[in-house]
Amino acid sequence: MRIHKEDTLALIVDIQERLFPHIHQHEQLAQNTRILIQGLQVLQVPLHITEQYRKGLGATIPQLAELLDGVNNSEKMSFSCCDEPSFQEQLEQSGRKTIILAGIEAHICLLQTALDLKERGFRPVVVEDCVGSRNPENKRIAIQRMLQEGITVTSCESLLFELTRVAGSEAFKTISKLVK
């Protein structure tokens, strides 16, 4: 089951200032997520970001926010993005069925969003090297549960090249430079 960019939307979940420093291997997570965002932008895959309780957890971290100017941003209080009516409405209106997921925390907001997306007829694709938790064991268990539930799990580089499809294009050249 290939992932096609024409049917895909990406969701960056809750990578926020006050929680981010506590995430296991957070600097690598930020670097991988920057590559993911830049690659998706080259491929013109629509992006959406969420922020959990902005007043308490702060805004999206600056190193990602600078890439996301003008991207649709939703504040949420529920753990699952799908429990926010405005987000769910925007998702339905997009007409896209494959939803790429990156962000934090893997075992809470990412897991619940992925499960809800699948239940609602979408195809969640979790980018494993672009998700994190404070405790690596919680992330491992979340990824295992997602796999048990039939949710696709992949890596940033694999996903970007799958969406690119062919070598030789300008998109291919740009993405090749990003992942090196």
Please provide a written account of the structure:
The chain is of the alpha/beta class. It has helices at 26-42, 54-57, 62-65, 85-94, 106-119, 136-148, 156-164, 170-179; strands at residues 8-13, 47-52, 72-76, 98-104, 123-132, 152-154. It is 45% helix and 21% strand. The protein starts with 7 loop residues before the first strand and ends with a helix. β4, α5 (106-119) and β5 form a beta-alpha-beta unit. The longest helix is centred in the N-terminal third of the chain and has 17 residues, at 26-42.
How are the strands of the biggest sheet laid out side by side? 3-2-1-4-5-6
Secondary structure tally: strands: 6
Query: Looking at the structure, what is the overall shape?
Result: globular
Low-confidence stretches: none
For the termini, the CA-CA separation is 26 Å
Percentage of residues in helical conformation: 40-55%
The sequence of SSEs as H and E is EHEHHEHEHEHEHH
Mean pLDDT: 94
Strand content: 15-25%
How many helices? The count is: 8
What gyration radius follows from the Cα positions, in whole Å?
Answer: 15 Å
Largest sheet geometry = 6 strands, parallel
What structural class results from the helix and strand content? alpha/beta
